[in-house]
Amino acid sequence: MIVYDLQCASGHRFEGWFASPDDFASQKSRGLVSCPTCGVQRIDRVPSVTRFNSGVPQPAQAEQRPNELAGKDPMAIAQILYSRMIDEMLQKSEDVGRAFPEEARKIYYKEVPSRSIRGQASSEEHADLVEEGIPVLRLPIPPPDLLS
Prior knowledge:
The chain is an alpha+beta fold.
């Protein structure tokens, strides 16, 4: 599994997960890769952050643990990695609920200290935030009562 940082022609950045570089090229040529924010299909790879400290053991430590992803099909790997990403995001962000649009604006306009937040916004509120240039991302996350 390979993760690429991507950007659409409208300037929205997002990640794409692919089985291989050839898989990315194939999906892009068939019009299967589109921006999750605006739907544009003109997508380019952009430079990635070289290292992200996610708490995953470094290679020397990782050798001591069996690779739980070894031998799994790409869809199972994607599900495991997505689940890990959501778990980490839930642990490292503040849930502001329905106040999300208001809090996102306060953070963007530096009215309050910067912090990672999550919450709910209607489609119209999300579109308004994007139009203002406020970087937001929609993720399908189950409600808290379904996570336990």
